[in-house]
Amino acid sequence: MNKPLGVLAGIVVVAGALNTAGAWYTGTKLEGVLQTSIQQTNQELAKQLQGSTTHGTIELVTLDRHLYSSTAHYRLKIQDEASGPDAPPLELLFVDNIEHGPLPWSRIKTFKWMPVMAVSNYALEKTPFTEKWFAAAKDQAPLKGQVTLGYNRSVDGQMELLALEAKLDENSSISFSGLTMDAQADADGQNIKAKGYMDHLKINAASLDKPPVVVELNGLTLASDLNKSAYGFYLGQNVLELTEGQLTFGVAQSVAKIKNFEYAGSASANGSLLSGRLTYNVGDITLDGKPVGSAQMVMTASSLDIPAMQALLQIYQTKFQPQADGTLPQTPLTPAEQVLMQAQVEKLLAGNPQLALEKLTVKTANGESQFNVAVSLAKPASFELPPVEVTKQMLTTLDAKLLLSKPMIADLSAVQAQLVGQTDPQAVAKMASMNSEMAGVMAVQTGLAKVDGNNILASLNYAAGQVDLNGQKMSLEEFIAAMTTRFGGVAAQ
User: Which Pfam families does UniProt cross-reference here (predicted)?
Assistant: First the structure.
């Protein structure tokens, strides 16, 4: 054997010995790592499902250790209280073939030679509950994935839901292209990035006494970039994009379609104060092939005291959230809980929170309407003051503007007529015109708006106890008296 080949052989032998030692070490540490991971997962599940009627847990059923690999079996239990106290939990079983580090074969053959602790290859197992799901996926595991665990406890994972075609019953069916999801997380899941894609989903539901309903989704993308806050929940960005969605419904089997739907949500914290932004866009809406329009909405919030919101949420979940049967809890707030609630509301207001509907735009072929409103709040000196004085101190500023297009109202009235089966073009046009003009007349009669050409305009501004309604200035007391005069009599009739 020549010298280069001898050196190479020596390197291979040493590398193999190191890999064997590393694999043995990984195997001895594996069960503790799995149990810790499962415990953290169950804690996170409990946090995320808190306040809902659904509870979930995962457990390690068995672990068979070998030198280079191990096989684990897990059980996921999901219990929904809405199904009743005697309803059995939903159980899903998973098998996990775990390759020990530092150099698992699945990484070597794909030229990924960075040492890792383990590579997990998991898949849903076939049970009486999941056998129809397996059949729809041509007897393959319909849910599977791979997770790579680094020595720094970072995680790099891929999950796949396989394509399937299945009849749900005699009149209903589902067609699914499959979904892929990639995710990365550092130790203990403090930072998470994920991205997923689905090409197509179609659900056809029908019954003997109702018209069929067909839901279709095409081109769905999901993405998240999140960081766990000191308060136990995640901050960051979430994005959802849908290329096209379609709903077929009703006796006439009308087809409503949206294109280029986008949702973006972001949240951040400055100390104990939370800020967030939500954006919704619908690029195009049609009904039975006829254009309806487009829409956009942007909402923001800032300076929200996180501990106060969490305390108020806890009170809501225990005292006000509907129970599994839909009824409200019957136990009233105790005096101590009332004091706690008021203290948390005061703490929330002390942060001077700001809430805004920055933009609400609806655009049709012949018109565009816009609405926005922003509110700033503050803590009053006392809630024992007269209601008007509490309002003055608590409501720092309010600014709202409305532009309502009469042609847009006419366009949407025509869509409404189409939905109820009106087919006479002249009757539809007449009704649409009448509705748009009626909106202008009602706005002027109430005194809340004015008409300027084809637009209905309204503005409301409040600051320092003074109200400006469409250019008419008055005190808050005068404004309340005016609104009571205008609408109090109507409510009494």
Answer: DUF945 (PF06097)
